[in-house]
Amino acid sequence: MRSLKIMDGCKGTQVYALNPSGPTSTTGAGAGTGAGSGGGGGGVGDKLLHHLQDHLRVNSIRSKSNRTFQAPTPLPNNALTENLLPYGLPSADLLEPLIEPGLKSVDFVETLADLYRRIENCPQFEKWKMYMEQCAVFRGVSDPKLFRRSLRSARQHAVDVHTKIVLAAWLRFERREDELFGTSAMDCCKRNIECPKAALVSGYNPESVYESCVCSRTGLEEAEDEFLMREDECSTSEEDGDISFCIGDEEIRCIRCNIASLSRPFRAMLYGGFTESRREKINFSKNGISAEGMRAAEIFSRTKRLDSFDVRIVLELLSLANRFCCEELKSACDAHLASLICDMENAMLLMEYGLEETAYLLVAACLQVFLRELPSSMHNPMTMRFFCSSEARERLAMVGHASFVLYYFMSQIAMEENMKSNTTVMLLERLGECATESWQKQLAFHQLGVVMLERKEYKDAQHYFEAAVDAGHIYSLVGVARAKFKRGHKYSAYKQMNSLISDYTPVGWMYQERALYCVGKEKMMDLNTTTELDPTLCFPYKYRAVSLLEENMVGAAISEINKIIGFKVSPDCLELRAWLLIALEDYEGALRDVRALLTLDPSYMMFHGKMHSDHLVELLRPLVPQLSQADCWMQLYDRWSSVDDIGSLAVVHHMLANDPGKSLLRFRQSLLLLRLNCQKAAMRSLRLARNHSSSEHERLVYEGWILYDTGHREEALSKAEESISVQRSFEAFFLKAYALADSSLDPESSKYVIQLLEEALRCPSDGLRKGQALNNLGSVYVDCDKLDLAADCYMNALNIKHTRAHQGLARVYHMKNQRKAAYDEMTKLIEKARNNASAYEKRSEYCDRDMAKSDLTTATQLDPLRTYPYRYRAAVLMDDHKEKEAIAELSKPIAFKPDLQLLHLRAAFYESMNDYVSTIRDCEAALCLDSSHADTLELYNKAKEHVNE
């Protein structure tokens, strides 16, 4: 099935500081594998050609937005080989891990449990605030679905217009709809939860987010309104009017009681003790309103409508309403002007009026356009004027539009755009000024510390990190230590981290940070402990790899970095492996990794930001065999069938370089990225596939996948059906079948999914996708207990090199009680697949306990993020009445991956041991991840009953 694991593993930042004078020699590990690897001899960093070095120096600092590079003048292969590393090799002494910019807890499970309790017990009007705190906690978690779900819940429970517009815009930004051609910022996605008009309606109505969005009124309604407006807007006749307002040479005839009804000041003026109450004509020339504006006020006093007036007149009425405290008129003007805001030009023009006249809805509508135009609007010069300064925040606050959630959203985008910019600093300072709750202060101060550290303003960084610690954020002690270290206080930094390890239950990042302030064996021991406690942290692997490189053990260095690339792909790790492969003169492997890296991050700068990755591709290309598009397709089939996802990504990147508008290839790219748990990059590829679609039915399919992958299953089905109505295609039928199969299928639904997959297989497609469809069809047949039909599907898939079908065939054999045949199928998959952790895991189901234990140990070594091996081992220990060991087995992965199933199982173990307090805590943490998980809810309620008794 199409992978649904969506770990955002694509946020790589170069942390390799370069030491140009460092070691440049390499091991003599044989000649390179590329076509140009022969001849030239010598090390890769010690024979720099002067003219190439000059060329690289000129082009070393490039803007991220400049993504096109000219290939250098062709040089002999040996000259290029010797100059691929003009900036030397990385130095272990200068490596440094990033400090994570979000909230990080020393006891994540307790944090989740506490959040769940508070969300459940808080008043309904306060729930959105709790969900925002949950957003902040989930921001640093590898699964972006959790963050988006919390953001949707916050929007669902929002009460006021300001919060609604911010959260609706944030949800839109998370889908990056701004990158879709032909879409406008104010386009409605037909869902109330993100609708720009629905966001401007105040009030608490959490059920409304499930309703269909009604953005436009029907033609009949508009016609009726226009008719009523014409009927009501005739001027007051001389007979009706009993008072005139004189403005210049003009008289505006009005009905005294109607004007008096506009406000108390008007009533006092016209019916009180003032001279105007006894006059039929009142001089109104010095009250800042034109005759035309006063006529409009007269019409409003009768009709309560503003529809026929142009913007200038409504703005006059708004000013009049403020001057004479006409609340109804002000509200009407505010709402009318807000309804006119549809683009950035209008928004920027009327924002100033809204702030001057304290028009809440008008400012909200202007603010909404700005927020829905992010990130591009971040570069608008008006940004500084309206948002960044303390004075700007105060002006927004006066009209009810300065909030923590606003500056949280804007500051996150600013940090993504440019961590070191003044705009980022100022927005974070405003965030701190808006912070009132403990978690808000922790986040604002910690992020200011991270930014100041990036800007090399170490004294300020230490100040902000210490403020975050004072607010309760223990992780900020890492920032305090790092800032001290940068200021030359290495021993103080070491003591800081040593004390942290002593005071709390140690976790991986504590040892990782302390390792920076150690040397020799002590440093390596801390890094090894880091990996034992949290194998997902990249820095220890990178440090060990570079240390091995410095000892001229390039092969061992590559093996070390391969360990983490095998289960967690990130640009910085691919960069380091490419670096090492160049040192090993494996140019084909290096080119593969750089191409894969560019797929994850097209703007990535290599060699400590000195060379654009595209440029290194151009330098490496002459050193490897040149492939035609047909050759690339053959390679893609081979690598896809060997489950070599990184190799497949590289081939697709090569093919797209020759044919950048090929949407089918972009879609292939997205599938591979999802399999590698790189959802952010996968979604970018899907958007590009949609943008380059050559037909309407194809565009609809890709829009459907985008919706499906962002949690909108019903809308995805609708897109698939619309595509099929335009043209029957493999991908449209496949999307529909896949989305339907996502839910638990009854027999009737299973039959329909089978029909859809069969229809897909009748449509033209290539072997890669047909193999996928056959594999999925086999899975549905197995669920329907049609094992022979399933076996046929899997065999047909294997015939077209869909290697993963071995797993399905093994399942069929197992269900037929042919365990040996099932075991053999999985062995074939292990032998063929490059990434085979899942194959070892599945094979364990078809062998005895000892062999299963061995396979699961291998699976964990290859991919420690897979949870089944831990659960299996824990269950075996519980069966052997080794409760403490079973709990420890589950606690190990929970420390770095608080998974729902792991938490539920540990809660069940605690319950069997009569430890109901621990059961409740783990259940609450699990329910924080998924509040609808039925088994956990049942266990939770049962444990609470025991505690109450």
Task: Walk me through what this model shows.
The chain has 49 helices and four strands. With 949 residues, it is an all-alpha fold. Among the domains are: 243-339, Potassium Channel Kv1.1, Chain A (2-Layer Sandwich); 766-865, Tetratricopeptide repeat domain (Serine Threonine Protein Phosphatase 5, Tetratricopeptide repeat). A hairpin with a 2-residue loop joins strand 1 (243-247) and strand 2.
User: What number is the mean pLDDT?
Assistant: 87
Q: Report the span from N to C terminus.
A: 46 Å
Q: Assign the structural class, choosing from mainly alpha, mainly beta, alpha/beta, alpha+beta, or little secondary structure.
A: mainly alpha
Beta-strand fraction estimate: under 5%
Query: At CATH's second level, what is the architecture of the domain at 766-865?
Result: Alpha Horseshoe
| CATH level-4 homologous superfamily of the domain at 766-865 | Tetratricopeptide repeat domain
Query: Which fold name fills CATH's third level, the topology of the domain at 766-865?
Result: Serine Threonine Protein Phosphatase 5, Tetratricopeptide repeat
Kindly report the spatial arrangement of strands forming the biggest sheet: 2-1-3
The number of distinct helices, counting runs of at least 4 residues, comes to: 49
Number of strands: 4
Proportion in helices: 55-70%
Shape label: globular
Rg, Cα atoms, Å: 32 Å
